[in-house]
Each structure stands twice: as C-alpha cells, then as structure tokens.
Amino acid sequence: MARGTTGGSRVGRGARRPELRLPPLEPWAGDGLEPDGDYDGLEFTDADLTGQDAAGARFMDCALRGCAVDGTKLRHARVLDTALTGPRGVGTDLSEATLRDVELTDPRLGGTQLHGAVLERVVVRGGKIDYLNLRMARLRDVVFESCVLVEPDFGGARLERVEFVDCALKGVDFTGATLKDVDLRGAAPLEIARGLDRLSGAVIGTGQLLDLAPVLAAALGIRVE
Predict the structure, then answer these.
(1) 80-138 confidence digits (pLDDT tens)
(2) Domain tally, the chain
(3) CA 117 to CA 133: how far, in whole Å?
(4) What pLDDT is attached to residue 176?
(5) Is residue 22 part of a domain?
(6) Which domain holds residue 147?
(7) Which stretches does UniProt call biased (Gly residues) (predicted)?
(8) Which of 33, 77, 85, 120 has the most CB within a 10 Å radius?
C-alpha cells in the first residue's frame, strides 16, 4: 500500500508523493485482460496487452513492467497502489479512469487518453509522452519529474499541487484550466501554446517570465519594437 509523503515547499503546499510498498507479487498467467476484471497483487512482465479491453477493471497492488499497451482499452479503470515501469504504446485509452498512489516510470507513450480521469498522488518519472490528453481531468498531488511532455492538453482540467521538476513541457495547452499551487519552475523549456490567461495559481521563475514575454505581449495585444 502507499503512504503519502509531503514534498518540498516549492509553492504553497508541496505535492504529496506516493510511497509504494508492494506485497509479494504473483506472476500474471492470464491469456488476456477482461472488462471489469479484478487484478490484485500481480506482476505483469513484458506482457503484450495490445488492443485488449479492460474497461472498468481494477488493478490493486500490481506491477506492470515493460508492457505493450497500444490501443489498450482501460476506460473507467481503477489503478491503485501500482507501479508502471517502461510501458510503451500509442492510443492507450484511460479516459475517466482513476489513478491513485501510482508511480509511472520511463514511459514511451503517444496519444494517451486520460480525458476526464482522476489522478491523485501520482509520479511520472522519466520517459516521454507525446500528445497526452488530460482534458477535463482532475490532478491532485501529481509530480512530473525528468520527463518530456510534447503538446500535453490540460484543457478544462483542474490542477492542484502539481509540480514539474526537471522536465520539458512543449506546446502545453491550459485553455480553460484551473491551477492551484502549481509549480512550473522546474520546466525547461516551458512552452505554453494556449491558456496563458489561466496561469493564476501557478508560479514560474524569472527566466521563464522573460522567455514567455513575447507570447504574453502578443496575447495582450502589446506591440514590442
């Protein structure tokens, strides 16, 4: 099970990180995932889950290592107290899923769908995720650390105690998002494509402000000569 720990005092209250203590795990010996399946205390190693349907399934105290998740359907799934290491795939569907006390390490993902999902005490560490869809999602106590996010979409999402630590944030969309105690100081580069007007509730560094100045000026209709 996981226990939350208090992060550093970067902005307001720091994000609480999961601290996983997995029990002894049994190797997964199934032929495939099932909708509404119940997976407890299992280890999935190099499993090919491509295109499988596990909508509504529950993963509790599990470890998934090196699994292929191209087009895997996990809509409404619950991923709890679980470590995901090295997942790879395009178009994984986790829309309206719940991720709580989860460590995601070294992902290689593209077009992952987390629309309307709930993320609480989640760490994403290392790796690269292209076109991450977090529209209308709720993120609380989430840390993105040493990873690359290309054109992530937080449109309409609510972010509370979210930290970006030593990571690249390219072409991010904050349109309609609500930010509270969000620390962007560790994002380099910090490239905001849309939603500059939603940065109330976030903190950025002086250098980042200078980098964003041309975009801010354009958004405000200011001509700089």
Answers:
(1) 999 999 999 999 999 999 999 999 999 999 999 999 999 999 999 999 999 999 999 99
(2) 1
(3) 10
(4) 97
(5) no
(6) 44-220
(7) 1-11
(8) 77
